[in-house]
Design a protein that fits this description.
Helix content is 32%, strand content 20%. A hairpin with a 4-residue loop joins β1 and β2 (15-17). A three-stranded antiparallel beta sheet has the order 2-1-3. By secondary structure, it is an alpha+beta fold.
Length: 60
């Protein structure tokens, strides 16, 4: 795999892929670095938590 981006995290295989990896519906990204793509699930979890706690997005 090339060391130049973009990189994606495949949700199906739990691996970092280049642009010619699995279909878009099965992956997160793009990311500029392989390192950032490898932490895609953690990044998504952190963003979701921040959005859930954001008072501008509370419906109650």
């Amino acid at each position: 795999m090339s060391d130049t981006g973009p990189f994606y995290f495949c949700l199906k295989h739990h691996t970092v892929e280049g642009k010619d990896g699995c279909k878009a519906a099965d992956r997160l990204g793009p990311y500029d670095t392989r390192e950032a793509a490898s932490h895609a699930l953690e990044s998504a979890e952190e963003r979701t938590k921040a959005w859930d706690e954001d008072p501008k997005w509370k419906d109650d």
